[in-house]
Design a protein that fits this description.
- The chain has about 230 residues and is an alpha/beta fold.
- It has one domain (about 30-50, about 70-220): Rossmann fold, CATH 3.40.50.300.
- It is built from 7 helices and 10 strands.
- Helix 4 crosses helix 5.
- The chain starts with a strand and ends in an 8-residue tail after the last strand.
């Protein structure tokens, strides 16, 4: 699903190096965390994996596509049909219902409005908000707003979900609920990649890729439940 080979990213002159020769492979259907402190390069890595930014050098393949040679229009289509995004800040339109916020995630698919709203309804039910579809963001708790953001990210049934600090603005209970939803999406077949600085969040993932100073310093996997120690 994700393949990075020798990926670098630098900014400015003299250059500030954000990524320095990163190699990473994420198989279809994995659930993992990319974890590191502020300034480690993890968010830059997410932007490159999500095709929101281009690598300075190296090879980036997402769902079989070598994105280095793709046009902006082709990258937009890749994001629309293959990748879903969840951010720490919910980025919901104020004054718009949860249903219409989620349906907005399908604006670029060409589906008629009725179909978009039907799929938005199903996505909100999937994250446990079937009774809150008519509520606006100011009428929802932080955890509920993040659920709306997740529903919007998955309404297009993306193969890859990128979650950037999805629990960073939430209390412990709401954060636990959001992680449970992400695990449920993974169980249903979505590849889920969580960017976090929180080691407690990362510890709950079956794979943890630690990043520091623009490099991967460790890549750990938990033994499957029931496996011998």
């Amino acid at each position: 699903m994700v393949e990075l080979r020798g990926v670098t990213r630098s900014f400015g002159a003299p250059p500030t190096v954000a990524l320095a020769g990163v190699d990473l492979t994420v198989d279809e259907g994995e659930l993992l965390a990319i974890v590191g402190p502020s300034g480690s390069g993890k968010s830059t890595m997410l932007n490159i994996i999500g095709s929101l930014d281009r690598a300075s050098s190296g090879t980036v393949r997402i769902a079989g596509h070598d994105i280095g040679g793709m046009s902006d229009a082709e990258l937009s289509a890749l994001r629309a049909y293959t990748i879903g995004f969840v951010f720490q800040q919910f980025h919901l339109a104020e004054g718009v219902t949860a249903l219409d916020n989620v349906a907005a995630g399908l604006l670029y698919t060409g589906l008629p409005a009725r179909r978009r709203r039907e799929r938005a309804q199903r996505a909100l039910e999937q994250v446990g908000l079937g009774e809150r579809v008519g509520h606006r963001p100011h009428q929802l708790s932080g955890g509920e707003r993040q659920r709306v953001a997740i529903a919007r990210a998955v309404v297009g049934e993306p193969q890859l979900l990128l979650a950037d600090e999805p629990t960073g603005s939430l209390d412990t209970r709401s954060g636990t609920d959001v992680l449970e939803i992400l695990r449920g999406l993974h169980s249903a077949g979505t590849t889920v990649l969580v960017i976090t600085h929180d080691n407690d969040v990362a510890a709950q993932m079956p794979r943890r890729v630690h990043v520091r100073d623009g490099r991967i310093v460790s890549d750990e996997r938990s033994a499957p439940a029931g496996a011998a120690a």
